[in-house]
Amino acid sequence: MSDRNGRGGESDGAGAANTLTLDGMEVSFEPGETLYEIAERHGKMVPTLCYDERLEPFGGCRLCIVELEGSRNPVASCTHRAEPGMVVRTHTAHLETHRRTLMEMVASENREVDVDPLSGYASQEMATLVDRYDARTGRFAGHRSGVSRPDDDNPFILRDYENCISCYRCVRVCAEQEGDYAISVKNRGFETRITVEFDGLLKDSACTFCGQCIQTCPTGALADLKALANRDIPGETEKTRTICPYCGVGCSVDVMTRGDTIVGVQPAMDGPANEGALCVKGQFAFDFVQHPDRLKTPFVRGDDGELRPATWDEALDRAADGLGNVVRKHGRHAVYGVASGRAPHEAAYMMQRFMRAGLGTHNIDNCSRA
Amino acid sequence: MSNPLRDMEEPDVYFCIGTNMTEAHPVAATRIKKGLARGARLVVADPRRIRLAEIADLHLQLRVGTDASLLLGIAHVIAREGLVDESFMAERTTGGVDFLEHVREFTPEWAESVTDVPAADIERAALMYGGAERGAIYYTLGITEHVCGVDNVQSLCNLALMTGNVGREGTGINPMRGQNNIQGAGDCGALPTNYPGFQSVLDPANRAKFAAVYGREADLEKGMTKVQALNLAGDRIRAMFIDGENTVVTDPDRQHCEKALGSLDFLVVADIFMTETAELADVVFPASGWAETDGVFTNTERRVQRVRAAVPPPDEARPDWWIINELARRMGFQNFEFESPKEIFNELCELSPLYHGLDWDRIEHGEYQWPVPEAGHPGTPRLHEDEFPNGRGVFKLIRYRDPAETLSDAYPVWLTTGRRLASYHSRTQTGRAKGIDYLLPEETLEVHPDDVAEWGLEDGGWATMASPRGEISIRVQATNRSPRGTVFASFSFADTPVNDLTGGGYDPDTDTAELKVCPVRVTPREGLGRGGTGA
Question: Phi then psi for B348, rounded to 5 degrees?
């Protein structure tokens, strides 16, 4: 990788070249980069539970520690900025032992390690690391995580704090990404509790139910209740990348399906408009699509004046006759087309094409005037 | 938007006017909140004390419909204080001399007399925006849904032009589009005045170009707007084909709208639900919906993005494009042989200069913002960096005009309408999503607590609200979000049809309805509960 400061990769003799030694290999870095970011870039798979690349480094879980020559103790790589000439080791036996011990501590503190992947985007991070470090033991049994809030009857966000590891990702995402500061922390040490103002319900707090906390939670302590309600639907969960159907911001989402059923929505962390954010509508208001009220067949108005189901052939012929009669009687400018601001381009394009190329009139508009 | 969404984290000063962004565009609002955390300052102009106003450095709580006079007062101060970007005005704009002369008479004291915003606050706002290195304007329907909507937008353009806040990172004039693909509907030419790509129907070159591809000429005259069409329904307009719009609920003056659609000889509607509008139709086509249809949306920052089918549509429902294509064939129209959304989108790209460098495969990852004039072009995240479409930015000399209807003894209260976070338009979608009722079970009328007392209402009780077009029953919510003398409601709930009341006037240029201003009378409702809704 070339030197991004434009010095052509050569040292200027003053020891200012931005390179360090990472697991025996000389690598370059950008000023301000953390050791974790550099290690990630080189595929070192340094473990972490409190890290979310969108958030300020926190240094809470201590799993990402690395050895730094000249430093007596390992340092948290997520908060430690790179300096020229550093010698860094990411995977020594000592570090791995330390990480395993940490994982055993969090694993035994939590009621469950395995949570349903429908819980949220990052919900498998803890279980994955527990497996990687073979840390399924009861070595530190006795202490327990937070106190769950079954009294919070909101239909969107599960608050199962007995699976909380106090990584503060929910607190930080709510403050730094959403800007709502709804989630807070009380007490310290084993008594640490994730909560909201006055220890109350989410509904009575500054929470807007955007769902960012459930998507960054690495343990499923905060989880997507609407998706979990579909956990018994059989089949593998598949994800389809698309765009949210609500406002004009155009957030990228992954629609989760099992078979032909939509089971939930997750934000696309790399969505250009939203970068992992959604709002309550985009996150939770997806199930209108498969609502029983959907129109499943064409309808035509019968002689009795009532709309009744019809075949496509019948409905199309009826519509063509009806519009054709108006054109014959009153001319092509007596027909008006309204395109949707909700349907895709192809619908709006075809609607104007129908009016212009088909009928020969510019009597076409969309719903933007209301 | 002139600038990309990512620019929303970069301004020194935000000027948000007529945009309830934390509710209507919540994810965009997160970027403003990040900018504020970084130290940027926020000026909010809105009649209501919305969430954005609560986190603002300065809230200009103007009387509804007086935006143009507020903006004249701000321009006056910017000019007077020498905060004008003279080199930008000289190099990039025209009409600036006249404009600076024009605003001399509109002092902040005059603006206060119209808007009720203290002159000192108008001065502060002008110093903040005018003094910013990077000042950015964001607006939504609170600016446009007025009889003077175009004036309001041009007033904002004047501010940006006089301060040179255009064409650079963290600046710009940024309308937030309200629907997922409302930008796209315009891009595709679903407008009476424009072919796809905003190419005028009056330009002979455009007519020839489309006649060649479409195989027939459209009429030389431009078409009429939907508002005009509804006014002429049963007269010059005898049939309508409406795709995916619940016109009778979302348009103003519901009675007028129902009467218009009812007077047609023939109405065809395609939708995903049996909406109030579909119920009036002669033929209803079942359309495939979101997550069932492959296609393209363009967002508010002009980003062209693929949407994809994840599940099949229910039973006989079909994509809108298929329905329209099939109906065209039954009508005997030539050249309607489309078999995929890809073919359709690619034809659009051929014909639109804005999309000409795109095709179905190139937009796979959504990295392009139009215009993309030719293949290989990187797209245009930021407009007007070097020049304006017509060369120079033109100052417009705006004067304040009253709303179509003003207060009277019969209708002494301002009603303004808008959106709420947990509901969307007429709730055909959010109303069918489980859990949303937990957050928003019903519509309420937001009334200042002192007005609640003075008008003999009760917090949580029922009121009758009337305008010259009708009356509705609505539950009262006492809240300081509303200023004295102004009430607020959304039109989301079918049982609280606020648009029975609205529709007093339209912008003469755009036919956009004045949904943000409607004089009403609010009185306690006799008896318990909703009772029979009147008129």
Answer: -60, -45
